[in-house]
Structure formats: C-alpha cells, structure tokens
Amino acid sequence: MGITNSNKELSAARIDCGGSFQVRLSLTAAPDIVTNPTDIVLVLDRSGSMAGSALANLKNGAKAFIDIIDEATDSAQDGQIGSGSRIAIVSFADTATQDTQLITSVSDLKAAVDALTAGGSTNHADAFTKASELLAAPSTNARVMVMFTDGETTAGPNPSPIAAAARAAGVVIYAIGLSGSGGVDVAALEDWASKPASAYVAITPDDAELEELFKDLARNIANPGATNVVVTDTVSSCFRIISVSMPTKGTASLVDANTVQWQIDELGVTQSEGAVLEFTVQHIGPCSGTIEVNESISYDDAEGNVVSFPSPRLEVDCDIVVLPEICPEPVDIAVDGCEDTLEFDAGDLGLESLGRIVQLSVTLQNVCPNRRVALAAILTEVDDQGLEYKRGMKTVLIPAHTRESCRDVTVRCIKFVLPESLDVSGSTGSICNARKFKARFIANYIDNDFECCNTVL
Fold first, then answer.
1. Residue 173: CA atoms inside 13 Å, Cβ hemisphere, count?
2. Which candidate among 239, 354, 365, 392 keeps its CA 20 to 30 Å from the CA of 300?
3. What are residue 299's phi and psi, to 5 degrees?
4. What is the pLDDT of residue 457?
C-alpha cells in the first residue's frame, strides 16, 4: 500500500513573540496490494447535502480509485481486480445500502457508483454496520474501510461504538471529510478512524479536490511499503529549531538551525505501520501576525511514493517591539560586469581605540494603552574589588500603544560602545580580557489621566 497517509501538525495555533511550539510529522505505510490482497469497502455519503458538484466529483473520485486498484493488482486496467483483492460499495443517507458485495468486476462497481443519487439525512451508524457486515466473512485478506462524508450524523444511533468494534476486529478505517458545506464533524472522523487520527483522516474544503484525494489514497494503498525514506523539513526563517526528539522509527538530525532530516530504513513493509517525529521550534522574529511555518518540506523513498504534507500557519503575537538604536546606513558598492578589481573610498571613520559593543534588551510588563513610557538604561563596569565605574546611560521614549488592554512591550538594541582603554579588569596583557558589567533600568509613565478640578470663583 505504500505511504497511506502523511501529516504535519502544530501544538499551538498562537504563540507570543519569541515563544516556542512543537511540530509533529507523521507517516503511515502498509505492504503492497499484490503480496497483501485486500478487501476494500468504499462507504459513500449520498445525503441531500451532496447534491450537485459534490456528488459528481465524489463519483469521479470513487471510479478513479477503482481503476487504480484494478491496474495495481494485475498490471492492467482489464476490468477485473486481480491478485485476490476485492472492492465493495456501501452508500448511505437515511439508511445504508450494500450497493455491491465484495466483487472484482470493475464495470459492476462503477455502475453502482454511477447509480448514486443525493437525498435524505445522514446515518453513519448504519453505514458502518453494513460495511462491517461485508468485512465480517472469514478471509485471510487485509481489510480496509474508506468512509467518506460531508456532514454530521443526523439519523440513527451513535456510530462511534460500531466503528470501534470494526477497528478492534482488525479493520483499517480511513475517513475523508468534505468540509465545504460547513457541517463535517472533524472530531467525529478522528474518533472513527484508525489511530493516529492524523495519519488516517483527510479533510478537504473543496469538492473539486475529491477526485485527486481518492486517487492519492488508491495509489498509496496499491504501492508497496516504503524503504529508504528521507523527509527533509525546513522551517521559515522567522523560526529556528531548538530541539529534536527521538522519532518512533528511524533517526532524525539537524542539518542546520532551520532544517531537520528524518530517515527511515523500512516502513510498512510487512504490516501497516506508523511513525512519528516531533521537534521544537522557536520564533526568532521580527516576523509577526499569521506566519506559514513551512519554508519547504520534501519526501523521497526507493519506491517513488508520492507524499505531500500540509503547510500549517501560526499566529505570532509580538505586541509592540521598540528598536531605539538605528543600524548604520550601508554604503552601496557596485562592480561593473567587466571589472576584475575595484577600489572604493568609503570616507573617514574615526576609531580611537579597540572596543566592544554591549547590546541590551528589556521587556516592560503591563504597559497600559495610550501612555508613553520613559526608559533609562544605565551601564556600569565592575573591577576586581567590586567598585563600579560609569559607562553610560541611554534614555528612550517608548511610544504609546493602542491595544484594548495592558500589554508587554519589548525594547531591543540598546547599544553601549565600550573602548578597551576603559577596561578595569586589572589585566594589561591582552585586548580580550574578561570584563564585568551591571545594567540597571528605570521606567516611568510620562502620561496619565489626571485632570485638574474646575476652579469656581
């Protein structure tokens, strides 16, 4: 079956500026359908909300699924599913119908799909019951159920116990949801499907994508398990990877601060199998707002499985960040196309002695709206005796913010230039002495809501 599902999830939908979150990659693979004959039941929603393009695209997807399985089982679309595998069609609305038994005739399967008409409510429990009955007969075949629906349960009992019983009996359940009508219950699909849900549940908002979704699932079911798997995930430059956990299968390593590579020798070669990798990512700014976490993510294996991962987005709330120090303006230098060398005079730059730069940052907590803040940063240097020497004071006016409530305000890049001639470390033998400093901050509102009382004469 190859890679039957892939997913990328985030542990949070929103973080504060500089915060961190976990990324979870998951893969599921299973053996190929030739050496592992499989009974598949397509469970298809034909309730009233499926009328129109949704039902038409569902039919196209189901028939494409059947064609791919047909060719995969005997290397030809000859109208007969081979190698011992079989497919059945169950459809449902107010009640469910076994439109076919488990059969090998492609024409009969497609005729059952084409005959579907939309109307009625949505009875998932009866759908699971009818599909389970088809898969209950004694057989050595692997058993797969593909549940497609576009809505919540509106008729019949709770379907969860019936789906759980099917899973307990060894049936692998995939759940496909069409969310465009706004009624699909994602939590229910995750409850019905095999675990982890992230590997067995697919949701699409657009019925035009149904055909490709069914094709991808059929190709992955037909392919062999995966070997020599390599997943390379690069996160956006707004983030960095700070730790990588041991995956449940294979090994993972950091390529650089933004890229992790996951390698698996074999996955799903002898039986259906899942693997998960988790790593921790930190926001490093200055990006804020809604940010796409992926820079890129690629998949490769020896079997040529086609695998795609979602591209999740994250809301980063940086509140207000003030940068009081302006970086020096760069000087533009151009080299003409035929010039081998270039001499450029950048002008005069005074440098009295070797020195260092200390850059301070501080976060002012609970700054209320519409009030400016005066901030002073005081830096002293400390000698071996503990005596302090003044090295400078910077004052910054923090502009008022207009958020509805009091918020933290981060002030970055408060720079102090410290010549080596002021070194009080006590050592004169090196220009790289260890030097000790103390920083103090003073912050006060300079605006308030005080109003003078009116004077009465």
1. 29
2. 239
3. -130, 140
4. 46
